[in-house]
Amino acid sequence: MKHAHAQSRDSVKMAAGQQWVLVEMVQAFYEAPAYHLILEGILILWIIRLLFSKTYKLQERSDLTEKEKEELIEEWQPEPLVPPVSKDHPSLNYDVVTGPPSHKIIVNGKECINFASFNFLGLLDSERVKLKALLSLKKYGVGTCGPRGFYGTFDVHLELEERLAKFMRTEEAIIYSYGFATIASAIPAYSKRGDIIFVDEAACFSIQKGLQASRSFVKHFKHNDMEDLERLLKEQEIEDQKNPRKARVIRRFIVVEGLYINTADICPLPDLVKLKYKYKVRIFLEESMSFGVLGEHGRGVTEHFGVNIDDIDLISANMENALASIGGFCCGRSFVIDHQRLSGQGYCFSASLPPMLASAAIEALNIMEEDPGIFRVLQDKCKHVHKALQGTPGLKVVGEPLAPALHLQLENSTGSRTNDLKLLRAIVDYSMDRQIALTLARYLEKEERFLPPPSIRVVVTVEQTQEEIERAAQCIREAAVKILK
Amino acid sequence: RNMSLIIFTSYSSFPPQSHHASCTSLYKKPFVESFEETPLLVAVLTYMGYGILTIFGYLRDFLRDWKFEKCHLAREREEQKDFVPLYQDFENFYTRNLYMRIRDNWNRPICSVPGAKMDLLERVTPDYNWTFEHTGNVLKDVINMGSYNYLGFAENTGTCADAASECTVKYGVGVSSTRQEIGNLDKHEELEILVARFLGVESSMAFGMGFATNSMNIPALTGKGCLILSDELNHASLVLGARLSGSTIRVFKHNNMQSLEKLLRDAIVHGQPRTHRPWKKILILVEGIYSMEGSIVRLPEVIALKKKYKAYLYLDEAHSIGALGPRGRGVVDYFGLDPSDVDIMMGTFTKSFGAAGGYIGGKKELIDYLRLHSHSTVYATSMSPPIIQQIITSMKCIMGEDGSTLGQERLCQLSENTTYFRRRLHEMGFIIYGNNDSPVVPLMLYMPAKIGAFGREMLKRNIGTVVVGFPATPIIESRARFCVSAAHTREMLDKALNAISEVGDLLQLKYSRKNRHGNEGSDSFSFLESHQD
């Protein structure tokens, strides 16, 4: 009651004059209840203590003396920089090719028919391409001495980009100087931390590196299994409904290959496009193996299925297979592609493609445009090789009839990958002795997410004749019978 | 007057960058680097400049959104309008409003050899840099101060070009296979033996792209449980390689040996964070010449630290190979050190050899391991034969093995050109960063408007320069970067220097407060006065 009385008196006095405020405060202090004063006193003492005590370090404090630290530094032994490699490791010594890697290739001193280089359209030994490259060399020299932003943009680069965009019937194209870096730089340019990418299990290594560099959430769906993909998309939809605000800013992508290099089959593109519009995800298509192979004019898997190319947000391919040059490109609408000119790491921070290689690619494009019959020939040859290799005892053919690069896997594995590889290598050596050049498909065993089984790669090119194909199939059959019995 | 004196002394030059007295014996010749501090007035004006640009940026975005102004940006498809937007508006704010205004200084197309003189395609823009049109005219004989052509091997005549032509005719252009499959040509083996001999290491390996050499091989060398100590200003490829490896990354201050030593000690003493297990290995990533700063790594001290703490050293000599050292063997040669002290020597062929690609050199065990486990040998196409031939010919020329003294002449010419160019710029009163011996010369511009103005004014005087701003450099430290080449003659350099001086006076770029030859204090006063007008 006394407290209330003091308060009413205070308010009256406040109105009366400011000079009485100090006196009133002291009086209120005397008249406040004891518990109030004690509480305030304790709080003030606590504040003083906090002000003068040492700051609390959240990281570990080092209680070690200097001498102990020196001892630790003395004792520490690092691992060797690289683990030792045994001299008889099978992949240590590469097969050496003497001379150009053309249709008749000289491997380890033996002249063979080339069933191993990705020279689908036979343009590696084209005289026209070599001539154009020579002319370019005489005009520009060899290297570009700079990235695209700093006087590394040549008129041939601009021409190649225009021609590629026109060929693929998209708005714009961008070229990279290294095939591996193309999709590995494109994915992180659009997809950042927090975005979601749905990718096929059989995606190639450069896609995997792009995914890793992007730091996004990656969800794998079973190879070419649209139901599994739809299941993942539905799950994501349910997640979105729980948190619609977040869902509005998370970007979603599906990354697939047109023709998979690891399994040699084609992705079901029309189904993917349907899923795209149903669940609002963007599609990135990697067409290294299908560019210049599938479709009536060689435009890839979109032409093969008759899908509108604008439905695919980004198409990436390397120019090292059908175009027989070096480098890679991405094409699509300007809205999408232009972004990479400032944020594609492999584009901005790396020297541009040497002009002679760009000229070679332009000439290869010219050849492709002048003679669209070549794709029909290649597709027929692929079917022929696929049929010829069927029925090889102990080996099964993995891949579609239209695929230009097939895999031959062991029907019954020995149980250990090393032994499988030894057997397959023996078959390859046997074939090379009989003048058929084959190669084992190579993988980084510890780094691949879904390691494909060991296999022999058989590549079809337009330069192979009927007779050569028959001979190769015969040779492989003999090798399989002899080595795998 | 007293106030001005105080300001002058506080911003006056400091003696050549000193290092610990105990380490003086490691350096055989004086190591002179300077990074003059930004004058305070300039810093304030730069921030103001960016502030004004940002305000205008918001204004223009507002006008574009409300359709008062025509929008030149490409738009999303109608059918995909309800998809999650591909770009967030804010991400591209800088691109739309600042970069677009001065975009004509970059991506200038050229149509000749990128040698000491080049021909540029003329471009005009009818709508303030949103689109460009080629008029068809060619600006001939523009002096090239931007291409990385340190030894002048970017040429289309001469032994290199002839050898590359022969190789094209014999081998063709493409390879279409990886090194481990059937893409390993005899030319690759020849190149690798030559590179190992050039560097003075046991063995080496070559790759098709310099950027990819870093991003594919660092993950093969380190992994989880390893520590990477990387310099503040390392190139994007080193940063990407370190990230992809999955190791813990710690950054030390640029070229600062005390910072590096502290990190090393802390790392070994405390071990991995939280578990305190010892680190499996420690890798130090440094570059030979840092291309944005022009500084040279303090290699003797880094090697001393590396030996003391048993760490491994990865040296990226992208810019320094061929450009430094009496025999052109890079920064190891420049300091007179033993190449076997550097565990992993990496470099590129793009700059001094006029080709493309990268290499890694080191002990035989290292290279054997990389032959099996590098991402590039398993999944990436091998190098193109004419490129290899260019590297072989130019490397033999530098080593003097082609029978002529051309290589040695070019090395001397580059060194002379560098010293002359830097000295003249310093005398004129510009702020130049970097080491006195580095052929990369950054000239500070600071203010955003001067970036565009410098590039355009130099082009009007027929000199092609490179200007760099954010995000490649810190936001207030934008600069123009000159690359001196052995192909530049004294006349070309003089012409360039006169033009730079003219533009420098026009744009008031001569910020330096250091004592210049002759003019003791008057220049600093005149600078202050001119800004008070």
Describe the structure.
The complex is a heterodimer of chains A (485) and B (533). Chain A is α/β, with parallel strands linked by helices. Helices cover 46% and strands 14% of the residues of chain A. Chain A is built from 19 helices and 16 strands. Chain A has helices spanning 2-16, 21-31, 34-52, 66-75, 127-140, 155-168, 179-190, 205-214, 226-242, 244-247, 269-279, 301-305, 334-337, 340-343, 345-348, 355-370, 373-389, 417-433, 466-483; strands at 97-98, 104-107, 110-114, 153-154, 172-176, 196-200, 217-221, 252-257, 282-286, 314-318, 328-332, 395-398, 405-410, 436-437, 439-440, 455-459. The mean pLDDT of chain A is 89. In chain B, strands 5-11-10-9-8-6-7 form a 7-stranded mixed β-sheet, sandwiched between helices. In chain B, α9 links the parallel β8 (282-287) and β9 (312-316). The longest helix of chain B is centred in the N-terminal third of the chain and has 26 residues, at 40-65. β4 of chain A pairs parallel with β2 of chain B, so a sheet runs across the interface.
